[in-house]
Design a protein that fits this description.
Blueprint: H1 15-29, E1 43-48, H2 54-65, E2 69-73, H3 86-95, E3 100-105, H4 110-115, E4 121-127, H5 133-147, E5 154-158, H6 165-176, E6 180-184, E7 201-202, H7 205-211, E8 214-217, H8 233-240, H9 244-247, E9 255-257, H10 280-300, H11 304-314
Parallel strand pairs: 1-2, 1-3, 3-4, 5-6, 5-8, 6-7, 8-9
Length: 315
């Protein structure tokens, strides 16, 4: 596997790199709560310029389980309020000996711009409406645990597709791994046609729910809409949500997923969030393992001794 020095997006990863990350994530998922010193003495900064609960805390738990020193950046009390650019902030951290930065930002493509200008390792915790690669990896891990494979699965992603960085990552990853991807949602929330790979089908929600092995619902991201919704939450739920009636149409063995946070009663009925078919809490659990795998791979990927031990552990 070629060395992964940054995790900018799933678009840049090969199928082999994705599978190796999933293998390592599975290794950590099978060892919940285990502490290690694999990143002992390494400094990692978390820079979140957008609100986050699951991703931010999941990264911090992963970092501490790996033995790293964690620095949590607070924009409101930083020099960015004085006009400092993110580039200058990163360069300052770099000069202090910080080796990796986990970044969430509203700006699409920011990490791609930074990667050619800085030396520390960059990990994308969500950039605008572009990509959210670690969410994608934890979703893939959850699917693989449930079905024993990803190749051949039919995955339906439903909801606010235009504004979803989770979809942005899955558009690249799922086809690479041999899954069949279906998209459904309001016509005003569909992604631009030019970013949808060949072979990905757009269908109505009932067809998506009836035929998918994985029904993944997405939140309506009101904070990214320039105009208010023209329908009520109740109308949206009836037309485009996973209602109790639609859930009864799911195939035997099919599962419900959601990257969260969940708007209960909007994209999914409240009773379905924690039902037998739901893997939503399992996704949250797997977030720590997936992010441990990413941090370990990015920070230790050029260490040949670690590569050798990794191969042995995964054998």
């Amino acid at each position: 596997m070629s060395i992964v020095t940054h995790l900018i997006g799933m678009k840049e990863l090969t199928t082999d790199q994705i599978e190796r990350l999933l293998d390592r994530a599975e290794y950590w998922a099978e060892r919940p709560g285990v502490q290690t010193d694999v990143l002992k003495g390494r400094f990692i900064a978390n820079l979140f310029f957008e609100a986050s609960t699951r991703t931010r805390f999941s990264f911090e738990v992963a970092q501490k389980r790996l033995g790293a020193h964690v620095l949590n950046f607070i924009p409101e009390t930083s020099s960015t309020v004085k006009g400092e650019t993110i580039y200058d902030t990163i360069r300052t951290l770099e000069a202090m000996g910080v080796e990796a930065a986990v970044i969430r930002t509203k700006k699409d493509g920011l990490l791609t711009e930074l990667a050619s200008e800085v030396s520390l390792h960059l990990i994308n915790a969500g950039d605008g409406t572009n990509e959210h690669p670690t969410q994608c990896l934890l979703d893939l891990l959850t699917m693989r645990q449930q079905f024993g494979r990803i190749e051949g699965l039919t995955v339906a992603i439903i909801g606010d597709l235009r504004h979803s960085r989770v979809l942005g990552s899955h558009l690249h990853a799922l086809p690479k791994l041999g899954a069949n991807l279906l998209l459904a949602g309001p016509s005003s929330m569909m992604p631009p046609a030019q970013i949808v790979p060949d072979g990905v089908k757009k269908v109505d929600i009932d067809e998506a729910v009836q035929t998918a092995d994985v029904v993944m619902m997405l939140r309506v991201q009101l904070e990214r809409h320039t105009d208010a919704l023209f329908v009520s939450k109740e109308e949206y739920h009836r037309a485009h949500g996973l209602t109790l009636e639609r859930a009864k149409m799911m195939k035997p063995g099919a599962v419900i997923m959601h990257p969260a946070p969940v708007n209960r009663g909007v994209e999914i009925h409240s009773d379905l969030v924690e039902c037998e078919k739901s893997l939503i809490q399992k996704q949250v659990t797997n977030g720590v393992a997936a992010r441990m795998a990413v941090l370990e791979t990015v920070l230790k990927g050029s260490d040949k001794t670690w590569e050798s031990s990794l191969a042995t552990a995964n054998a």
